TrEMBL record:
Keyword DNA repair: no
Record keywords: Coiled coil
GO molecular function per UniProt: acyltransferase activity, transferring groups other than amino-acyl groups
InterPro entries from the UniProt entry: Acyl_CoA_acyltransferase, GNAT_dom
One Pfam family in the UniProt entry: Acetyltransf_3
Domain called N-acetyltransferase: residue spans: 29-221
Stretches assigned to coiled coil: 64-91
Protein name listed in UniProt: N-acetyltransferase domain-containing protein
């Protein structure tokens, strides 16, 4: 029996998109590819103080043009990934499942009772860029570029790849355990079985205790020493410390 290289993703009959559904009590939340029509909702979310304060690259004010540019970048990456998966399906029409370079779903959506899907946030993983190894507290440098290139050159499925994660969720949905459930679902359903993820490094600006707790719930170990950082993010907010969280597969 043929097995799709998109397994275990489901396919939405109405949109034709792959998706993952969170388990109860969050089974009204799905994770899908981004859509350009998400721009108005994304603009609103990135304009929430509880969001842009803790993100490095969210501008203030955030315009719809900013949101559209972000969505275009995400769609471009995921289109390349879907091309990769299609090529794997052609090469291995009867399986087995092959390691892939990323996850084709990252947009969090609430499914209403009438079937309407509302964009509420974003969660994703990519190969780490080793910005923490750059010159100064933030930025590139010879060592950073060397480490990033070595990490990028490792083949899909290599257990030595260092990954990084990021997420945000619209503030009305905070405190419900949605991000924690999404992280657990992605690790269980895709990151481990389809990408062979073994090592993940996550950073959160000092003071963002909610993000730290979410990752701790999912097995991340927090470095007790806050890394010194003096960084002004894209919203013009100065941060002077960084929490570092590490997940290593046992």
């Amino acid at each position: 029996m043929a097995i799709s290289q998109l397994h275990p993703l489901e396919i939405d009959e109405r949109t034709g998109e792959p998706f993952l559904r969170l388990p109860p009590p969050h089974n009204n939340i799905i994770i899908t590819p981004p859509r350009l029509t998400d721009a108005p909702e994304l603009t609103n979310i990135l304009s929430e103080p509880a969001i842009y304060t803790w993100l490095s690259s969210a501008p203030r004010p955030c315009t719809q043009e900013h949101a559209e540019a972000r969505l275009l970048r995400l769609k471009g990456r995921l289109e390349e990934l879907m091309k990769e998966i299609k090529e794997l399906e052609e090469a291995f029409p009867d399986g087995p499942l092959q390691w892939v370079s990323g996850c084709p779903v990252n947009a969090l959506r609430e499914v209403k009772e009438d079937g309407t899907q509302v964009y509420i946030g974003d969660i994703g993983m990519r190969r780490d860029r080793f910005m923490h190894a750059g010159e100064g507290e933030f930025g590139e440098g010879d060592e950073q570029r060397r480490l990033e290139a070595e990490n990028a050159a490792l083949p899909n499925g290599d257990e030595n790849i260092l990954w990084s994660m990021g997420d945000f969720l619209s503030t009305p949905y905070h405190g419900r355990g949605i991000i924690s459930a999404a992280i657990a679902t992605l690790f269980r359903e895709w990151y481990i079985p389809r990408m062979n993820v073994h090592h993940v490094r996550v950073e959160a600006f000092a003071g963002n205790g909610a993000s730290v707790r979410v990752f701790q719930k999912n097995g991340f170990v927090v470095d007790p020493e806050v890394r010194k950082v003096d960084h002004v993010n894209a919203a013009g907010i100065r941060h002077t410390g960084m929490h570092v969280m590490i997940w290593d597969r046992k």
